[in-house]
Amino acid sequence: MAWSHDGAFLATASSTGTVIRVYSMPHASKAYSFRRGTYPAAVHCLAFSPEGYQPPLLAAASSHGTIHLFRLEQPHRSAAAAAASAAAGLLSAVINFAVTDMVEPQRSIANIRLPCAGLPAICALQHPTGSSGNAFEGGGGASSLSGQSDVATLPEDADEVTLVVATAGGLLYEYAVEQLSSAAGPKASLGGEWTLLGSTGLAAGA
User: Residue 30 forms beta bridges with which residues?
Assistant: First the structure.
């Protein structure tokens, strides 16, 4: 499970790891449902984007060595999709089984495959790190070394986010995920790779 930065949302994964659900607090009403994949997997980590992103983002790290990125917004549904949703809701009421998760879930907007597949991993979304390319130089996250928040400097139309992933094998990856609003989907590029068991970067990006 994971909470959003303001406590407004709670994200959970199904026991098979195929469906990610986001609940609106404090009433725990289901706000979003996402399809992570077709085949079962363990979801090791869920992480929301920091303050300043509209709509918010959600990352999910799975045992398949992938990170799925979701956008928390209601999809534009066709008349056929709306009819299917209504039918699923009616069927759920009749047989007392959640059919809507089989019909409604949205897919991820980006799917990032890690260089080392099969290792448990945790992930985090951060504000863009600027020209340094390293979230671990000069603060990197939502606040700087001086303690001043970077949120005020984030453009309202922010179209980039930094994804940081740490694996059980002691590897740390940093990705720049750009063009978040692109109709073709975001593009992710590996900016750096480090080992947590030593001080030498394996492949530091520019």
Answer: 23
Which residues face 22 on adjacent strands?
11, 32
Question: What separation in angstroms does the CA of 109 have from each of 36, 70, 72, 179, 204?
Answer: 11, 6, 10, 11, 26
Cross-strand partners of 160: 178
> What residues does 201 pair with on adjacent strands?
194
According to DSSP, the residues that pair with 123 across neighbouring strands are 165
Q: Who contacts 113 (Cβ-Cβ below 8 Å, separation ≥6)?
A: 65, 66
Residues in the chain: 206
Can you point out the beta strands (E) in 25-98?
29-35, 43-48, 57-62, 66-71
Tell which residue, 117, 132, 106, has the closest CA to residue 168: 117
How many CB atoms neighbour CB 59 within 10 A? 26
The pTM for the full model equals: 0.73
Find the distance separating the first CA and the last CA of the chain, reported in whole Å.
Answer: 34
Tokens of 53: 């992103």
Q: For 115-173, what is each residue's pLDDT tens digit?
A: 987 889 999 999 986 634 455 443 333 333 344 444 445 555 578 999 999 999 999 99
Residues forming a β-bridge with 32: 22
170-206: pLDDT as tens digits: 999 999 999 998 888 899 999 999 998 875 555 544 4
